What we know:
Layout: H1 6-26, H2 33-53, H3 56-76, H4 81-101, H5 104-110, H6 116-133, H7 144-149, H8 161-168, H9 175-199, H10 211-230, H11 241-269
Amino acid sequence: GFLHHPNVLADYLVFLLPTSFALALLGKRLVSPRLWWAAVFVSVVGSCMLVVSLSRGGWLSLAAAMVFFIAAGLRQGLVKRLHVSALLSAAVIGAAVVEIAYPAAYLRITHNDQRSTESRFAMMDQALKIIRENPVLGVGFGGYNRAAQMTTPESFSYLSPHFQDELRKGVVHNKYLLVTAEHGLVGLALFILLLWRFVSLVFPVGKWRSQVHFALALGLTAGIVGQTIFYIFDHFYADIRPALLWVFFGLLHGLIALNHLASKKETVQQ
Length: 270
């Protein structure tokens, strides 16, 4: 069922696509032809699915993930200037094709979004009021919706009663504000520390046993970076996405641990 919701589908692709791009970038010389073609297929089809999802947050998040991947890859020599030129050319051609074949993607940006942006700002204002009233430890895990029923910010006075009721049924579409509202500033600090800890895992590694391992690690890290941006636009509350984040944490940590183990064995042998 396309992972229940277009934003969930888009987020899954933000997780997946940087790693598939990394494998495709390596070429047939470093990975098997079958794996390389599979990575190219996933990259192309996944990019098309992301466009069709009409998730603006997903588009911005993948763009941020790819900027991180390219910048870190250039620094470590994985990405070449020729790769950057090819990616930019592909992006321009892709944008032209989308404009012709799927204009709904452009309309999603330039036309009415059925009050989606308005509702997000209203819920963010409500979340900030909840945070001001419970700044240190928040309202408790799972307590946001209960607090929302009793919290009415001044901005709600411009909204119809029906629209207000609809907003109170959900949670704020911003993971950082949601964490702060339920767990306070202490919880937010721990959450940001957790994200930073895993994003920064890949940088202290001085030597990678193989370029394939480094490409995989950088792709996984870029997927996590994409999540940190997507959290600004959606709530990530009660679906598969938090579980996927921990799966990626585990994959990244395991890959780096394998690299350390291989390096130790080489040192002992020498």
